[in-house]
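Follow-up to my post from last week.
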Amino acid sequence: MSAVDAPERSDPSGRGAAFSGTTGGEELTIVEPLIFARSRDERRGVRFPTASDRALNHADGQPELPASALRAAAPRLPEVTELDLLRHFNRLAHLNHAIDLGFYPLGSCTMKYNPKVNEWAARLPGLADSHPLDPEPMSQGSLELMWLLGELLKEVSGFPAISLQPAAGAHGELTGMLMTRAYHRANGEGETRTKVLVPDSAHGTNPATASMVGYQTVTIRSNERGGIDLDALRGALGPDVAALMITNPSTLGIFEDQIDQVIAAVQDAGAIAYMDGANLNAILGRFQPGAAGFDIMHFNLHKTFSTPHGGGGPGAGPVGVSERLAPFLPSPIPVLAEGDADEVRANAWAGRSTPGARFALDDDRPGSIGKVRSCHGNFGMFVRAYTYIRSNGGSGLRTISDDAVLAANYLRVRLRGTYDLPYDRISKHEVVFSGRRQKREHGVTTLDIAKAILDHGIHPPTIYFPLIVEEALMVEPTETESLETLDQFVDVMEEIARTAATDSAAIKRAPITTPVGRLDEAAAARRPDLRHQFADAPAATAPGSPPTPEAPTA
Amino acid sequence: MVYSPHTEADRARMLAAVGVATVDALFDDIPSAVRAGDWAVPPPLVEQDVRAELARLAGRNRIPDVSFLGAGVYRHLVPSVVGEVIGRPEFATSYTPYQPEVSQGTLQSIYEFQSLICELTGMEVATASHYDGATATAEAALMACRLTRRSRVAVSAGVNPDYRRVLETYCSGPGIEVLTVPLDLAETGSGTTDAARVEALVTDDVACLIVAQPNFYGQIEPMRDLAEAAHAVGAQFVAVVEPTSLAILEAPGAYGADIVAAEGQPLGIPASFGGPYVGLMAARMATVRQMPGRLVGAARDGSGRKGYVLTLQAREQHIRREKAASNICTNQALMALAATTYLTAVGPAGLHEVADLSSVQARHTAGALEAAGLAERRFGGSYFAEVTLRLPDAARRHAALVEQGIVAGYLPERDEPALNDTLLVAATELTSDEDIERLVAALESTR
Amino acid sequence: MAYPDDLRYSKEHEWVRAEDGRATIGITSFAADELGDIVFVELPEVGTALTQFGSFGVVESVKAVSDLYAPVSGEVVEVNEAVRDAPELLNSDPFGEGWIARVVLSEATELDALMDADGYAAETA
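User reply:
Got it. Predicted complex:
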């Protein structure tokens, strides 16, 4: 059996440069073929022992698998050697930009350096091989780490209670909204409080999350200074409002300077104040949401706390909550079952274990909303975040925000002459420009500008978000980029603005130095091709089996 | 240890350009009433001290010498190449591929992942992954509700209890009712979903029937019959499957599954105390617009080069906002890459060896314990690589073995009181004959 | 911008061509341009009862999604199957081949609540 569909000419340069293949009668240039194209009958990668290698012979008397449950034909996984596999994925890797290669100023994502000691820690066998259901006496290290991380995140944010269970920021939002619903139900207001308020600058996950929990979203406009309009908020608050979900600093990179009044207004109306913690990198050591009165906040460990983005996950989205919401946290929660918390913490900060201390998982929590994912959460990311916080320490965390905010303001003042700045005031860790001048005067859009940035080996900023800024360009440098990198970015942006004025066609052709140019996303969505189709007919003939694949498109 | 590169000279230059005297001025807009006070975060540590601290914590775990614990998380071999591939900084330190021109590595590897999951499951389309098997199952239930416009879901008690808790939590949001279809738990009964109760509970107001194969107790379920029962009332059939078993067991697409959910952890991902893992989801192409999560599709650029893009994004939160099928933003891209690398590294022959040896060693374990008069199978019927055994005084003896560094398995009485004095035992290709002999000897010593 | 003057237009950028008690419905070129390349149209089912200004379907582009709002009330008697396979017709010929549905008008006076071509042109200027 083979999964080869069409002959491919090999690429002797070995650098993933473009080369041609012929498929289905069309001439197509392929940068790196699919793994299926490297497959050859009977090639093997990793091998395992076979049943006959085993000496024990007790299987007699045990039931065979029933024939009706057996697979008709083996799955057509690729048959490749380890070397071919590695070449394939290494060549694919060459096609990616990454933080470890160059500047990545994606607003709202906090693309800071991901320290490698975090990776060393996550791979320690004592942590990596720990089974989540191993008996608690065997898991004291894992439980202590989770407890200590929780203590540190509470200290940083000012919340008295926390759950590490959510697997991502959006997952933390879901957790927070489910807790909000549980809280209102416990107060007899579950059926009457049906609305969630979000500012018009909110992340898309906020209204999507509210809907998943059965809430109706009401959008509150921002004022001319970029903060939430307090009068509009007050007008929208009432006995039918369950919560306000607000990002602070906002997605405009601006701190809500009336945040104390916002929280008070929300809570006076009997609603829950939820803070989207995506922008925590701006305020470490300066603002503690829990101490300021927020009821709930989700953390993004993959943003503020440096766990790698992985091309789109995994992340982790712990939620910190106030006392009144603590009963509703997901279960179980790691607790210090025996021992004095102050002593355990003090010892841990000094690098010592505490004799007699015992950690456990508390699953006896009747008010809990339940579970939002299996097991205890993305433990591997807890290891990385804990390592990061211990490396930086309290003073280091403060330096993170100081430098992130300073760097963003530096870019703000250096670029505000070149690109429109809708809100020209002190920003926090990110700043939002508008490409509207370039669009109006030269027909060059923010999308074009982003594609032109790619040709300079830099990842573009976030584009077209937040929605309230026309042709938005959201720049977040983070604290880990050098001044030379920031200055180079300014030079690139200025050059693109100049070229937009003198040779806009060049901008519209961009990118030209990347492995592929602009892709036809409309055609991709109209006629979706979401999987490799094999040339040979499928072996499965059982009723309900999927239809014969179409002509191969490798 | 801090990672900011800025010297005082750098900061002075930036402050001068911004036009403020100190960085504190950049935080003046924080109302004084809510400015942060001092905090009790310990001081920084240099690398060698940070390493010592993490080693201290790792050292406080005891990894068992011998383990027969599965219950949803399985200790399979993680081939060396997997760590090499996912350790590549281009994969690890890149972001979601919203700018496809510089993300073809990630995008093409996700397309390959989607292809492999389709092939394993016999389904037409697979997403770029979800947080874990539990959330994939919950999302599948919500998808079935959207497709059928019904608001009740039926789930077999044979589905992992953790998944069922997550399902209930997810359903509580939009007020979807969850019905549990019990198993036949009679002594030497089938240990599978009770057909009579399916008949009674799965009525034409139910959006889906969710069944695991193999089920949590290791038993092989009659999936074709259960699919028919669901379809007879116009409900979707959701199959929750164990991915390595699909080398040997029938693909869900062949027995009539409408949606498939699974946990991908057995495919090259270490146990890591519960995460990160990767949720798999697959379905029929006709329902793709109701599928939550990211999808990668093939595309062409202006010069005719083939590439890959995130597609059908209009379903997702950043566009659809409150009308999105789900709020999911991140998937688990690096873990999906681990699974892709694993499936490619082992190939069809290797996956078959893993599945075969796992089920053979499970039979050797059960057989050895039966031969020693220590335990018997609790259920009739067949099992895959995990089996529920009747073990008198199971809890006490399990604890006694823990003291010896042996985890004999999982105690099902945690979730099903009727299964007290039973032990759920899992084997993988890493289960050696010596492990089995040690288990037998240890249990013997606890009679 | 001149819009076809034999049509009536709603604020939500739908158009209506009414003849003999039936109405053909579509989206305007303005809407199609705003959405960008249209990739999918969720058509209503034949037999569905539409209510004026109620939502009855979805139009999806690469970067945006928009509900369709019925410009008039009536029962759907025909839908344009061509746009299922070729949604790009809404971009290339929004007032012609890109029509979406045909209904039997239940209340012809509803047309008075809609704008004429000049009114719509002013609205979208």
